[in-house]
Amino acid sequence: MIYEGFTVTKDFTVEKIYMDEKKTKKQVLDLLEKNDLTLDIGLEDSVGVYDGENLIATGSIKGNTLRCIAIDQDYQGTSVLNLLMDTLVRMQYMRERSHLFVYTKPTAQKSFQFMGFHKIEEVNEKVILMENKMDGIKSYLDRLSKHEVSGDKISAIVMNANPFTNGHLYLIERASKESDHVHVFMVSSDISSFPYSVRKQLITEGTKHIKNITLHEGGDYIISNATFPSYFIKEKSEIVKIHATLDLKIFAKYIGPSLGIHQRYVGEEPYCETTHQYNQVMKMILPQYGIDVKEIARKAIEDGTISASKVRDFIATGNIEKINSFVPEATYTFLASEEGKKIIHKIQKCKKRH
Questions:
Q1: 318 and 189 in contact (C-beta within 8 Å)?
Q2: Residue pLDDT, tens place only, 14-69
Q3: Which of 56, 81, 149, 281 could serve as 181's disulfide partner, Cβ 3.0–4.6 Å?
Q4: Which domains are assigned to the chain?
Q5: Quick one: which H or E segment has residue 174?
Q6: Considering the entire predicted model, what is its pTM?
Q7: What are the start-end ranges of the E strands in the chain?
Q8: Alpha carbon distance, N-terminus to C-terminus of the chain
Q9: Alpha-carbon span 64 to 4, nearest angstrom
């Protein structure tokens, strides 16, 4: 079936790809493998460009990113890439997404530059992040700089807060006491159990007594480990390090200077290996750009150390009463609301499926 609304030239056909069709999926996997790529997870939509019956190009979308773009070697340097990219961009526009990003191998930089994409940052010849707006990150930094506060100790914290706990609150209060001002960046990718709108609400309500902080939406330039694609990275053991390096270089080179940040606070991570690795990379990269790292031991209570994952586990197992000592009043009150009960039900339902 031709993908309705998209260009079909006299030479090539563009079709929607359904990954549940085994023959089609194998064609996609084979083409990706020839380009040293793998199939990413959670793709929203995929298309293929065909020369007769032969799949000669494929690409996919997920959120505001273009992914898994591969061209048959015999068709590289032809109009096929233009046709594929035009199709993917229009798919995004149909979803009212105009600011788009591409994570790819640095060897593909020139091809995407011809398509109107601009480099943001690169990591060790492993990955390059590009966007289709020349002033994309500059516009973001211009908005941030309006909140710059002068002082000898300007600090930053980045948090997902899924949900907002007393541990998050402890970290912010600690930074607040030790700093002239604290910029708190809330990871805004909407893939957590608690939607971004809820997480933002709980952080806002839970910190309203702290006067020397500014809350910021993380936006597209605070990269969540959960949204970082790895389909172009062969060495799977390097994925966490590459993601952390990319995210932290963007923070250190762009975000930090725009707000005059001197130090970044982070909670100690004794349990999650991914977060622990991220913290280790942070200690290596940020000081190179004049930003100190303050790693703070987790807040502990009688029932152990506080973590958002532990709160979600309590929810999943129905131990709601145990949550009270782990979260601020605003979070506990929200969980008792109708909207909160819907999230509880969703988490418990997901737990039962696994």
A1: no
A2: 999 999 999 999 999 999 999 999 999 889 999 999 999 999 999 999 999 999 99
A3: 149
A4: 13-134 (3.40.630.30), 138-353 (3.40.50.620)
A5: helix 166-178
A6: 0.91
A7: 13-16, 45-51, 54-62, 65-71, 101-104, 118-123, 127-131, 154-159, 181-186, 213-217, 263-267, 292-296, 300-301, 304-305
A8: 35
A9: 21
